[in-house]
Amino acid sequence: MRxxxxxxxxxxxxxxxxxxxxxxxxxxxxxxxxxxxGRVSGWQSxxxxxPMALAxxxxxxxxxxxxxxxxxxxxxxxxxxxxPEEDRRRILHILLVAHDMIGGLLLPLSxxxxxxxxx
Length: 119
Known about the structure:
Blueprint: H1 2-22, E1 30-36, E2 39-45, H2 46-69, H3 84-117
Antiparallel strand pairs: 1-2
Helix pairs in contact: 1-2, 1-3, 2-3
């Protein structure tokens, strides 16, 4: 189950990346990239935004995946907290939720949102 939860965000991020790249020709050269209360508040060229968004999304996924793939490398000092093993387990659960929410939902949906708003 843990492997599935680690792999799932990679699928959604890849889908979002494919969607953004498939719309490349239809996107304007200058894209609206930030919105505040439904109004555009920031602009960027598509040659800058798309690569940076993909690098951010896949960079964060790589970082979380690396941390979750080697749970024994997460060190908790003895005596610092109540039970080091239980604390390590809690930290891993927090990392897994962050991995799934940020890398699997927030960043891919944000990329799709910006691309769709600019079509």
